[in-house]
Amino acid sequence: MFLTAVNAENGEMNKVRNQLTREFGPVPETARYYKKHNTPWVVIGDANYGEGSSREHAALEPRHLGGVAVIVRSFARIHETNLKKQGILPLTFANPTDYDKVRPDDRVSLVGLQNLAPGKDIKCILKHSDDNSDEVTLHHTMNTAQIKWFKAGSALNHMADTLAADRNQ
Asked: Does the global pTM surpass 0.90?
């Protein structure tokens, strides 16, 4: 997962800062640490995110390791769909220049997810280490069914829940 992505903070591949321990380590190891410590995490990416990553696995691994959202300037179409099926929020900056407000050590809060609805923007607060913050607006393209997938953890989970509910009636 993200083994060849270059980290904006240090210019290295597969080496990110763990926001809890402040140490650098491999991406999968850092994600496992977050998962073990019940800490949801997000990915921040640039334009055409996911190009060449149309395989289901490219979206499955972040979900498996506790990722909840991918926030980018734009998505490669197939990858955006795969993220939705895996229950990960694919979000784009309403203003693409807001990408430049993100700092490597930010804590990200997605506000109002309990009211997630088709066409309704999401507020994102970027809490910087200097105690300042920026608020940015994020768009999504999820329909009602895809929002159910997100709330269930994936399309497959939603299908299983639906089948179980039907059996219990």
From this structure: yes
